[in-house]
Task: structure prediction
Amino acid sequence: MHGQKRIRDYGINIGELPIGPFNAITDVKGVKVGHCTLDSGDMKTGVTAVIPHTGNTFLEKLPAAVYVINGFGKSVGTMQVAELGTIETPLILTNTFGVGTGVNALTRYMLDNNEDIGIDTGTVNPLVFECNDSYLNNIRGMYVQEEHVRSALAASGTDFLEGGVGAGTGMSCYKLKGGIGSSSRKLEMDSSTFTLGMLVLTNMGRLNDLTVAGRQIGKEIKYSRYSGEEEADKGSIIIFIATDLPLSSRQLGRIARRAECGIARTGNNISTGSGEIVMAFSTAQNILHYEKREIIEQRMLNEEMIDPVFQAVAECAEEAVLNSMITADKCSGWAGHERESLKRYL
Amino acid sequence: MHGQKRIRDYGINIGELPIGPFNAITDVKGVKVGHCTLDSGDMKTGVTAVIPHTGNTFLEKLPAAVYVINGFGKSVGTMQVAELGTIETPLILTNTFGVGTGVNALTRYMLDNNEDIGIDTGTVNPLVFECNDSYLNNIRGMYVQEEHVRSALAASGTDFLEGGVGAGTGMSCYKLKGGIGSSSRKLEMDSSTFTLGMLVLTNMGRLNDLTVAGRQIGKEIKYSRYSGEEEADKGSIIIFIATDLPLSSRQLGRIARRAECGIARTGNNISTGSGEIVMAFSTAQNILHYEKREIIEQRMLNEEMIDPVFQAVAECAEEAVLNSMITADKCSGWAGHERESLKRYL
Amino acid sequence: MHGQKRIRDYGINIGELPIGPFNAITDVKGVKVGHCTLDSGDMKTGVTAVIPHTGNTFLEKLPAAVYVINGFGKSVGTMQVAELGTIETPLILTNTFGVGTGVNALTRYMLDNNEDIGIDTGTVNPLVFECNDSYLNNIRGMYVQEEHVRSALAASGTDFLEGGVGAGTGMSCYKLKGGIGSSSRKLEMDSSTFTLGMLVLTNMGRLNDLTVAGRQIGKEIKYSRYSGEEEADKGSIIIFIATDLPLSSRQLGRIARRAECGIARTGNNISTGSGEIVMAFSTAQNILHYEKREIIEQRMLNEEMIDPVFQAVAECAEEAVLNSMITADKCSGWAGHERESLKRYL
Amino acid sequence: MHGQKRIRDYGINIGELPIGPFNAITDVKGVKVGHCTLDSGDMKTGVTAVIPHTGNTFLEKLPAAVYVINGFGKSVGTMQVAELGTIETPLILTNTFGVGTGVNALTRYMLDNNEDIGIDTGTVNPLVFECNDSYLNNIRGMYVQEEHVRSALAASGTDFLEGGVGAGTGMSCYKLKGGIGSSSRKLEMDSSTFTLGMLVLTNMGRLNDLTVAGRQIGKEIKYSRYSGEEEADKGSIIIFIATDLPLSSRQLGRIARRAECGIARTGNNISTGSGEIVMAFSTAQNILHYEKREIIEQRMLNEEMIDPVFQAVAECAEEAVLNSMITADKCSGWAGHERESLKRYL
Result:
């Protein structure tokens, strides 16, 4: 965004459902995104933070679910989400070796904002997700510091950049430049308009497989205009889904699983080396940390009405992947490695 | 097959890997398929049997895995496969209300062939899978009898019909006629040629979403040439994967999960009402029921080499779905319901 | 019950929570249990039906969850419960080879009571669970007929027999006689009294391991008073949990998992051959089949308050297993096989 | 060990299988354990490292499995073990807020020992497990530094201390002092003697529930000799299983699940707040990181012979929990909190 040219600006419209004002995860009210970009020499990495709502996430948790498409990844915090069906911190994206620092920084951020944690109440479950940017970034440098995480959290807003920024700085997608992408869909239900938004960090795929709206453009690029050598797919993708629809954690788990439909349509077959994780949360209602009532009430979607939400997820996933590529500039990084931009070929 | 015109005969080639001689699950040596078709008046149903190898499957079990894409289904026997990683019977496909009879018939078939079951040894785990053919078939008639299951088992061979036959008789796919489809891929590994084959029973999808090799033909049909009304997707798909590659049950579970990539490329987003189940097995080696050794050896693929197998699964799934449609004739069934053939539109 | 002497009548009290009036699953209002016992010559088997509530279970579904402790079993219907978190039929218990007939009978029972199934609406998910009674019963006889399932459903009530009745007729537990057992606990929450009840079908364990309230009585019996030879544990246990507490399906899944704590205290280590399945449901609220609202409300327990429910489950499981044994008489069955009653030794 | 008085020294023998020379996880050849204890003022915490074999674990991975009994925990690295069935680093235990530092330290340790990681090959999956020691330790101090992890790794050996040492320094168990415990069993199979060993970090349970070899000693202590107030169970337990038996990752997952049987016999019902994680690995054979063969062979146990391994796991779990308590001295920690030793009461 910020005026970036996105896939729709090329006349390529994915799916049929209407999009939100930003066509981004921040169309879900209260969701904010911030980056800290580390781009200098062989340092091509960074941090992206997604703040799920405007309140204190620890005190006012959100129903959530995680779905692991392929588990060759080092993302942290998913076990507790699977057990309890809630999130209680912002979501941090970074590179694989930034995870430990991400956990430390997010823990300290939560301690700073919650004096009761570890004293009057239990601990906190930091959520840190990663892809391996070691093709463009000197990942052994372990460049991500706690201040970068705080900086990404502090920079969060509703109009954010996509492509090679934040955690996306050193990421590759279909052997072109990837990174951060987003999209959203509006859903008319219960006489109201709800929004589903998605943010992805893309780092997967073989050029050969890249498909844009049904066109196998990867093969075209590979055989006619691309100088590089085909490489194995070693990459990953992280997918965050936010919605203001009241969905239970079980329902969020069901919608999370449909992200794969959209990703598959961009050409990928989920390589063995992929850490492919979907995290979905609903902002429609809170689970209070200090809930005093013994019985609570939760709204949820009539399950028979859930198919349009599945469609929204699949559409967003396909479009967000393409947005992560088309907004990314060509990048020259560590060890002389380069990734061209999809812009050159579309 | 049997000279049926399939999707490749229309010049539509899915994927890049080479196909086997039949381009069907029966390209995996030892695998046989048989149908019993019940097609008369409002009875539009049947049974399809897949025999996984030529030996006694109870005594010589096969490594296997099941993967549930969406669990709104009544298929039987998956729990034990998940626990033990083996299959010990043929696989039966039928309609939803034929499952109980399928279990009884397959149990009696196994008892007839194994006098020790229930006496000197334990019981047996029948595998029966289903889709709901109630649009074209009067499913409340519960027409499937045990003799139909035996008949399908007895009729099994390597050259089998696809489309509206056997369990596929009354099935719909993308609101056109669906049913049985198959495909295969050859893989060069370890200085040998291995085969991966697939058989699907298709009964899912909205016409609007049908995509053939990237072309959104469903929308074309819907807006220009189709007289029916759009219906919600209530359907299911069952996917069987066979291979002579030595894969562990864990690896079979991983390849099973890639079927969704191919299915998604035909347009589907996995509707809430779908019983979408993948069953994968390897014929490369047996697990003996009366194994005397305390420690056994099993061959398995070097996991780093598994990506081409994933690709084979995705390609087969996309092609098998299309084969299930293009081989199926228009069908008029119960309550005046009709399904056109994809042949009319392609 | 019906005046049967149960484990508390021997002065053995499991746990600390108060019990309900029947100390049985039928203490949960609306839950009924019925048996059909087939006990003649080498036919030692039967059917037990659990009716979850007094309404039409298909139209008024209940939140539910299934948890598989060990999956070497042939129980049917669990996949859909895992996906949708609801049950829509009674629960049937029978022997392993009675499952197909159980499915057919329960399907026909549901069709008879719901004219819309398969016509105006989808199908139905029959729930049939089993253990292998082939030690005392000639299981190859496949004696269970559809009328026996209907008979068990028709016989259902709140005061039911335990031990070697219904599906428990031919079951063994710790190499003594097992079968049907039940127990319940009362929970004070939200200024109300709630009930959690359990019914088990026991068919597992080695005599050596039997432990009653901490006392390793199995070893005592084995070394001093038992004439039989030690046999491997090949058995299973099915556990049904009912409660009128408002629990979400996710919460029901969590409580289901605690049944193992109670079972373990009777001595068992979950043998490889065990089909050990827990099914939990809540009667506190319905999920309507023809729900018209797009957003619904569901009550659920404040998750921080769930530990006493876990305790209730563990206590019920330990006591229900013991009740299944102490109420069972010695049984002589097929092939001259015998099982002594725990009554003889306690 | 080191001459510590353990539960068997009190005449309490758990189970029937023979124990190894140390009766500890280090009876499995190649497994070593090291501690770094931080015990000063309100700092009551530390690190325990388990080194799974004597080779380079990254280059020579081990078959492994993880099983989550209850997921209210922040342990790291389990997702990849679940996907690939291998471990490639030592296992680190520490407190909940030490996890980020544990990840960083273990990552650097692996980078130091493997120059190819992040350059010629992919990344590495650090395994860090935790319990919350905030009752005795000022957990907000985040005292664990990377040097403490390196120190624990460097200190590893076969004769190690149990109780309030290393990661166990500030842990509580059944409201008494807990910490590190271990046990082992020998298994005769295939004309050889195999060993299964376990190490636990205990931090769970209500005093009321503590049961020692069937005796409900917790109630005795509580009502007659204990001055403290009953507290809710907020705790966790981490369980590591090592064996030199050739088990596949699927089989390791099955044995991991039996740990709960032994834990339950010490009285616990798995509280909602528990991070209760089992990690099992086999040292019998390696999975090579740079495997060149396309098809490999793996030995595995004949599944029909697995019940004694289940028994070994259950016995070890019960005994290791008791060892973690009986070897721990009374501890006075942060905020004046105290935990008595079980030694005082047994």
